[in-house]
Amino acid sequence: MLCDICKKREATIHIKEVKNGKCISTNLCPECAKEKELSGGLGAFGFNLAEVIFNVGKMNGDKKAPDTPEEKNEKQKKTPSPTCPQCGWTLAKMRRSGGKLGCSDCYKTFEKWVTMAIEQVQRGAVHVGKHPECKQRSGAAIKMEIDKLQLNLAEAVSAEEYEKAAQIRDRINLLKAELDSLQSAEDNK
Amino acid sequence: MNQEIKRLLQNPASFLVPGTGDGIAISSRIRLSRNLSCLPYPIAAGKESAARVIREAEEGCSRSKTMGRRKGLFLKMDDLDELEKLLLLERRLASNELLKSPVPSALAVSSDEKVSVMINEEDHLRLQVLTPGFELATCWKKVNTLDNELGSVMEFAWNDELGYLTECPTNVGTGMRASVMLHLPGLVMSGQIDPTIHGIRKLGLAVRGICGEGSKNTGNLYQVSNQITLGESEENIIEQLSAVIRQLIEYERRARRALLDRDRFALLDHVGRAFGLLQNSYKLSADEAIEALSALRTGVDLGLFQHLSSATVNELFLELGAGHLQMRAGLALPDPEQEVLRAKLFRSKLRERS
């Protein structure tokens, strides 16, 4: 088996990590493993984000793990690589820059790759920290988000991604509390 | 020379003001990445949109109480020469990336130098708070207030699921990177540093040299920071990092005690030789000075010098930088002349105290 990074030398180091309920395996030659660890970049093993998304992703899609139906469809269609309508950012630019994005809309344009990157380097898929103070959202917007999250929750449960499901559930509970306080404030008016 | 920047030279850098802790945790820093919604990130931005970000940030900072309203500095990088930029880098107000930004970039600094905002670095805004010692809670309180102040006058890129959106998905969510700079000579000398770093990385934290990403570890200084920004709240991230830092400080204390118990003279010799080198050299490179100064700091921490304080060590640590040396000299100098000047600085500072 060849190393996932240099694709030249034999991989002798095999790393298996469970993230968000998925088993991710990485295979490296001693040289690349050492280099990655010394450079101390991203993740526990110090990967460059672009390498993670493009190489490991490709490898998992190649033969290691069985393809998901979506991935199979993607491959069969051979869709041209997307370009961000807002800023003109492309997949090639994302790769060259080490996984960076051109604008906030890129998160939508390159959703598939961003999701992959987030799975690799983050602990969860949903933000649970601070919200902007000025974001006084309407009840309708909150309801919409709860509906959307409930769909995500069902998906996560059926995919047995329990960690992700728990996070979504926590977020839904938070939103419900927010909605309640918003409604009681309106009732008092 | 920019008079406002010259003013910075009159004070010790905010993160090196002495008085807290036992010298192991040198400084703490928290930065938040924020972007203005609807504008391309610096990497994809044209001059026009970069200039707009600078205008909005200047307006926001001038209204922010935390930034000292109009009393603070607002510097456009294009207006600065190389020496001035180097000075900002050495005072940890600006990053390399900000100085080399392909689009117009700027820096806002509060009057006490503790709070700064980098504009058009990797993200539109990087809000950062620096404090001496192990003070992550103070940093968070302050940077959070600044974030609220700026967030009330500008709209930050935000997604209900992913939180604050950033140029790199490694920062998305909280956009927060908290770090503590540690001086770990005990762990280095006792050969425990590599397994320790390995252990910290396994916990999902990053360990870097003093100058940030990719820098080497000079002077036994290590920066430990969180990697994860999504899926955990800011408070949780800070608490998890703090737990590791507390443990590291304890390990370092134990290592120092063990070194003193096992071979007191070896440690004294190490410190004494460094003192001799710094006191008597006529040419000193920055790397050599930083290494020797690390030994001196260890000696001060262990109470081996009555006449030398951590304030002097901190002052020298800052002043040995090429930017500070040349700014004080008032002109750009080639390396060999900087080395002579640096040696002179150490001779005079350390002789007046011996």
What does this structure look like?
The complex is a heterodimer of chains A (189) and B (354). Residues 38-47 and 59-67 of chain A have low confidence and may be disordered. In chain A, 54% of the residues lie in helices and 7% in strands. Chain A is elongated, with a radius of gyration of 20 Å. Chain A folds into 3 domains: 1-39; 50-64 and 76-122, no CATH class; 139-187. Chain A has a two-stranded antiparallel sheet. The longest helix of chain A has 27 residues, at 162-188. By secondary structure, chain A is mainly alpha-helical. In chain A, a hairpin with a 2-residue loop joins strand 1 (13-19) and strand 2. Chain B is an alpha+beta fold and 354 residues long. Chain B has 2 domains: 3-255, 2-Layer Sandwich (Creatine Kinase, Chain A, domain 2), CATH 3.30.590.10; 264-352. Chain B is 47% helix and 15% strand. Chain B has 12 helices and 10 strands. Chain B has helices at residues 3-8, 47-63, 82-90, 96-99, 136-151, 185-189, 193-202, 234-280, 286-301, 310-319, 322-329, 335-351; strands at 25-34, 73-76, 106-109, 115-119, 125-132, 158-159, 163-164, 176-183, 205-208, 221-226. Chain B has an 8-stranded antiparallel sheet, covered by helices on one side. In chain B, helix 8 (234-280) crosses helix 12. The longest helix of chain B is centred in the last third of the chain and has 47 residues, at 234-280. Chain B is globular, with a radius of gyration of 21 Å. Chain B starts with a helix and ends with a helix. Chains A and B meet through helix 6 of A and helix 5, strand 6, strand 7 and strand 9 of B.
